[in-house]
Amino acid sequence: MRTRTAERYARGFTAAVVAVTTLLLAANAGPARAVETHRVPQTVNTAR
Q1: Cα 31 from chain centroid?
Q2: How far apart are the C-alpha atoms of 31 and 21, rounded to whole Å?
């Protein structure tokens, strides 16, 4: 099945708009936040 030239350009243009929109949304999302890890302090065995 052959696609018409205008249809091909429309699909390409739509894909380009989706790609640019995705990049803009990702750029405006900001940096990811680091996950805070809570470390349990290690106890020193002082028994002799």
Answers
A1: 10
A2: 18
**Which pTM was predicted?**
0.55
CA angle 42-45-48, nearest 5°? Answer: 175
3-class secondary structure, 8 = helix
Report pLDDT digits (tens) over 2-21.
Answer: 669 999 999 999 999 999 99
Distance CA 1, CA 29 (A): 41
